[in-house]
Design a protein that fits this description.
Strand content: under 5%
Number of helices: 1
Structural class: mainly alpha
Helix content: over 70%
Largest sheet: none
Length: 80
């Protein structure tokens, strides 16, 4: 009977070790997930900021183009 108890204890110790490793793995994966979620949120915020900046630059370009066309039109009037 003592042999059976020792085998049960070894089995229990092995199970305990696997459970501890599983808990550690789950904790690590949760931290990694939280970091990935935060990184994704930051990337979305940067993308939104860049999209707004791009729109602003496009509006500026349109405004400059309109002014240049107006100036070219005035130059054409001078050359007539």
């Amino acid at each position: 009977m003592p042999m059976l108890r020792e085998e049960e204890m070894d089995s229990l110790a092995g199970l305990e070790e696997r459970i501890v490793k599983a808990v550690e793995l789950i904790a690590r994966l949760k931290k990694e997930r939280e970091a990935a979620v935060a990184e994704a949120a930051e990337a979305r915020a940067q993308a939104a900021s860049m999209a707004a900046e791009l729109e602003s630059l496009r509006n500026d370009r349109k405004h400059v183009r309109t002014r240049i066309e107006k100036l070219l039109g005035q130059m054409d009037l001078l050359s007539e």
